[in-house]
Amino acid sequence: MKRALWITQTLFGLLVLVACSGTNRFPSDYIGFEKSVIDRSFEKGAAAEGFDVKIIAAEKSEKDREVVVAAVNPPGRGVVLTVEQSIVVIPAKKKSVMVPMKIYPSRINGTKVSIRVVCKEKESANSESQMMVNLSLKKE
After folding, report:
1. Which of 62, 63, 93, 131 has CB 3.0 to 4.6 Å from 33, enough for a Cys bridge?
2. Closest Cα partner for 61 from 92, 85, 39, 83?
3. What number does CATH give the domain 26-137?
């Protein structure tokens, strides 16, 4: 009985070590959004509201990396979300940068809207990264 308990504890310890080994959840050449979905709420008719989104690189680099960022607003609704800087730079030896964005609640028709935001490293053949910004009306 003691031996079975010892084996179980050893296997559990090995499982914890493997799970917490510090492996990155992104591919080594990944440059993109830290989160794939952001949920924000807004007050109807409010002025523009700003927020920041984090773009990350899986690995540090010896040179600056330019990243192009763009919002794809739903057709027929006008501009609901804007990216304040369409090109941001991840500095050398850094792994992230914050991108300022702004939403315009007065332009939103209805109670919910989803907007796709994309980013891609300017000088790379890597695929683009996508993020969904889900906006919903604040409940009273």
Report:
1. 131
2. 92
3. 2.60.40.2310
